[in-house]
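To close the chapter, one final illustration. This time we ask the reader to focus less on the individual chains and more on the assembly as a whole: which components sit near each other, and how the overall shape emerges from the parts.
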Amino acid sequence: MKVAILGTGYVGLSTGVSLAEIGHQVCCIDVDEAKINQLQQGISPIYEPGMEEFLTRNIAAGRLRFTTSHRQGVAGAEIVILAVGTPQREDGSADLTYLVEAAKDLAAYLEQETIVVIKSTVPVGTNDEVRKILEANCHEDVSVKMVANPEFLRQGSALKDTLEADRIIIGSDHQQAASKVKEMYSPLKVPCMLTSVRSAEMIKYASNAFLATKISFINAVANLCEAVGADVTDVAKGMGMDKRIGNHFLNAGIGYGGSCFPKDVKALWHTTRNEEVDFGVLAETMRINDEQQVRLVKKTLKRFAGDVSGKKIAMLGLSFKPETDDMREAPSIKIAQELTKLGAHVAAYDPVATKNAKRVIGESISYADTLLEAVTDADAVLVVTEWQEMKQMDIASLGEVMKQVIIFDGRNCLDEEQLRNCKNIEYHPIGRPAI
Ligand code: UGA
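The assembled structure is written out below.
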């Protein structure tokens, strides 16, 4: 099948390489010339495990192309996928500017029977709006059939999540268009659910909001565990053994970040306000998350009797989660800002996100080239992102370089056996008894 994809961000690129991998002829279009030049050479603009291997293999096989020309990209395509960003506006609603622009750019090149798939995360009703824009700007003999096909991939495991998804949601009011999109995915052997356009749009937001709520719920349980002397890891494990609850997304920590959950929960909240529908749990999910992001700062402050000024605090991890260099809404931002405000000297280390972090956090903190450099002479260590390197660090040797070994583990990721065997350390996890 010939497929064109507009937008080469996380979603567009992962979809493009995955569709090429299963045998389709894919052309990815982006207005960013520098990005397209890089992609043509097999260089990924994002840090994503496996991406460059997929790019190289499929470009070499002649199944994957990149262009800035809509005319070239769309020519002969049976399916056109829109995968541009839908960032957050100041009021929390989704900004559809890029999508509207992409639809306008695309319209003139649509051929007679084109199926237009929206993969971007969009508020309910957007497919209808985009169809109107396309119809208003395309040739009169073109018939546009819209399909809402949201994406459920996670950064860091984007390709695996696309190729081995739990489900594929295909929302369309045209049976034929839905069948064609289903056929495009058929080599994947992933269950497809066909539904209406609006239900498909809603499934995406409801799924992300539910997962975010699950995280805020377990974080609230963690805080309660600390107060009553229970262990949230065991509590989550015990809860998760009930199939109705499930054991995923119950890791307590310092709150969710990234480019999706914070934005999508806010956008859904915005929709509930517009529609005057009461959905208070969303507001509570966001409130708990805001508080949780500074939980480590509060713990550190308490440990140092309310004064951290002049202390060197090593912050291990900057990206919002491991296996990505993405800093969007990363808890590290708030943690760095709060500690700096309190007069602490923050020395941060991250295996891949430092360059991006410098742009977001700036020079108010220092950036170490190695984990060892960050922890040397530190008064405390804060584990902020659960990179393998942090999980595997030699805790026993910290005593040789730190002033005193005090660890605040925001991800409950350090090896408990190692911790118990270490002398003269203080360990403060989230929702679990300190060691
Ligand atoms: C999320 C969803 O998981 C994907 O299904 C969805 O497709 C994507 O958003 C999107 O809408 O595009 P992503 O933001 O890449 O994916 O990352 P997640 O792995 O979901 O993690 C999000 C945040 O939640 C991270 O900050 C992570 O540390 C946090 N988290 C996750 C927890 O604090 N606890 C958990 O148990 C799980």
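Residues 121, 151-155, 208, 211, 215, 249-251, 253, 256-258, 260-261, 320-321 surround uridine-5'-diphosphate-glucuronic acid (CB under 6 Å). Residues 197-228 form the longest helix (32 residues). With these observations in hand, you are ready for the problems at the end of the chapter.
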